[in-house]
Structure of Competence protein TfoX:
Amino acid sequence: MASDQNFVDFVMEQIRNAGEITAKKMFGEYGIYADGKLFGLICDNKLFIKPTISGREFIGNVIEAPPYEGAKPSFLIEEKIENSDWLSELIRISLKELPTTKTKKKK
């Protein structure tokens, strides 16, 4: 099931204070970027954040699930998705640990 645009817009609004946030459509779902760095996915109207040590400590009681079949588990954000300040802070914390996006060389 593809994610609903209203849910994507809601998530984007909730995390607007975490940096320059963009969403890119990928196979009916969405990759979520902050300042050009991929940090999460929206799949089946659920928000998944890439796992980091600092993010795990910040969340506390982490729920992990794969965003799609065959994917590695990510942090599934459910209960606190409506807490914009908490969610934005989680993303800022996570971004510090995530590797920078590799630029593709032109052929």
